[in-house]
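Here is a protein:
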Amino acid sequence: MKKSLLALLCMFVLVLAACGDSSDSGETSEYRTVYSGEIKTLNYLKTAETNEFALSANLVEGLIEYDQYGVVKPGLAESWESNEDATVWTFKLRDDVKWVDHEGKDVENVVAQDFVDGLNYVLDSKNESSTAWIATVVKNGDAFYNGEVTDFSQVGIKAIDETTLEYTLEAPTPYFLSMLNYVCFFPVNGEFLAEKGDAFGTTRENILYNGAYILDKFEPQNERVLVKNDAYWDKETVKIDRIRYKYNKEAATVAPELFLRDEIDGALIPTSILDEWLNSDDKKDLVRQNTNNFYTYFYALNFDPQYDAEYEPENWKVAVNNKDFRKSLYHALDRVSAMLTIEPYNPQDLLSNTITPKNFVDVEGVDYTMLEPLKAITETDSFNKDLALEHKEAALAALAGKATFPVKVLLPYNSGSPEWANRSQVVEQQLENLLGADYIDVELYAGPATGFLGEVRRPGKFSMIEANWGPDFADPSTYTDPFTEGGTYNKPEMAEGYNSEYNKLVEAAKAEVDPAVRYELFAKAEAFLIEEAFVIPYAVGGGGYTASKLNPFESQYSPFGVTSEKFKGQSILEKPMSNEEFKSAKEAWEKERAEALANTSN
C-alpha cells in the first residue's frame, strides 16, 4: 500500500486498550488507547496514510472483507461473479445498508451509484487522491485521470440498477477481489459529496457513515471517540461499543505506566523495559509477542536529495549514483543489530532479505521468494563485512576527484518513536564503525511525530531512510510497482540506466497471465532491484511485545487493504493474554487457517 512512514509508528507504537468485555451484562464495552500521530483528514477517498486508513476502515465499508483466517467474505456485496478471463466483475449489493450522519440518523440507502461516485472522485486528478493509481486497473481509469478521456461514463464502472454494480477492467485481473479491500473502491454518497465540496472529510459532520462505527467526537490533539453504529447491517458482530483515542505526544513512552495505573488496558512494551517486565512476578504474565505482518521494511536511497546545503546533497547525489558505493552500504548494514531495538530475543524472526515477504503468494506450493533468481537473495544474508569493504575500495577509486569523502548521509527518523530513534543511532554507529568515518558521515535528523511523511520523505529530505510498504492486492506487482519510474520510491529519478531496465522487467511480468510465468518474471525484476542495491531489504512488520486485552486472532486477517484495521468481530478479554497463551492460540489459529484456506480452494 501507499503507506506513510507513520505506518512504522502505528505498528511499533500503537497502544491497545480496553475495559473488560461486558457485552453479555448489558454494560457498555469500551476500548481505550493513547496515540501520538494525529490524523489530518477524514477524507478516505484521498488519503494514503495508515493511521487514517485505520480510522476510515471502521467508519466506511466496502464491497468485501475477510474473516479471521484471511478468507474473503461478503461486505456490502452479498454476492459476485466474473467472466471467464476476469475482466468483467458483477456485484449484487445488499438492500439493507444505510448511510447515516454523525448523530446516527438515516440519510440514504447505499446504492450501486455510490461506488461509481466514489471512483469518479478518486480518478478526477484535481482531487489529488493518493490512491488513484490502484483504481487505474479499471478500464480507461488511467486515461480519465490523465485527461485523455473526459467522459466518466467511458470508465469501466457502471451501476446497472440500485443493487447491481459492474466493473470492466483493462486486463484480466484474477486478484481483483483483493483490491476491493482498499479505500479507493469505497462508496460515497454523491449528493452529500457535492454539497460539502472541499469541506468533505474535514470534520465528523462532513462525512457519512455506513460502517461499524460513527465518529462521536473528533478533537485533534485531544481526543476522538468512535461509537457503535446501530444502523450497521452487521451490528451483531460488533462487540466493542466504544473506542476512545486519547492524544499524548509521548504515547510510546508513557503507555506502559498508564497501563499499570489502569488508565488504559494495553500498551506496547519497549525493549528498554522489556527485561524488567519479563523478570517481574507481577508483570511477566501481562506481556506477549506481537504477530508479524506483511508490511515490508527497507532502507530507501534518495537519488534526488532536496535538503539543506549543509548536508551536501550534490555530493551525496554523485556518490549514490555509483553502484559500488550503494553496494558498500548494502553489505555493511548489520540488520540483526538494528533489529535488536525491536526484538531483543529473536531478531532473525523479523528479518527479510527481499521486498516481497515470505508466504505472500506461491506457485503450486513454491513460495514466490524461492523462485529464481530471487531464491539466492532469499537464502543469503546481505550483511557481509568483507564485501562491504571491497565495494568501499572500489567506490573510492571510481569516485576519486568526483565526490568528497566522507560522504554525508542524512538519516531521518520519526521523533514520535523512541525505538526508531534508538535504531537510527545503532545504524549510524554500526555503518560508520565498519566503513570508517573517512568514508561516510551519518547525520541523524529527528523528524516530526505528526506529518513525517509529508514533511520529510515525500519532499526528499533524506539521503537514506527507513521506509515501508504494505500490499494492496494479492499479486507481486503490489511490491514491485513502487520502484518503477514515477512510483513512490522512484521520484523523480533513479541512477542512470535503472529505469529503462527495471520498468521493462516489470512490464513484461504484468503482461503475463499465467501465474507461474508471471511470478518468475516478477522475481527476476525484484532480484534486479536488490542486486543493484537500489534498495536494502530489512524486515517485515510487526514483532515486539505488548500487553493487551485484545485477542489478535479474532481480528479480520488480510495482508492487504484496510480489513485488518477493523475492530469488528473483536472482543475484550478480562485480562491481557500471556505469552504462553499467545503461543498456544497462535498454533491453534495456524491450523484452523490452513483448514479454512484448503476448504476455500476445494
DSSP finds 20 helices and 22 strands in the chain. Confidence is low (pLDDT under 50) at residues 1-25. Residues 338 and 423 are 5 Å apart (CA to CA). Residues 6-248+543-601 form a domain with the D-Maltodextrin-Binding Protein; domain 2 fold (CATH 3.40.190.10).
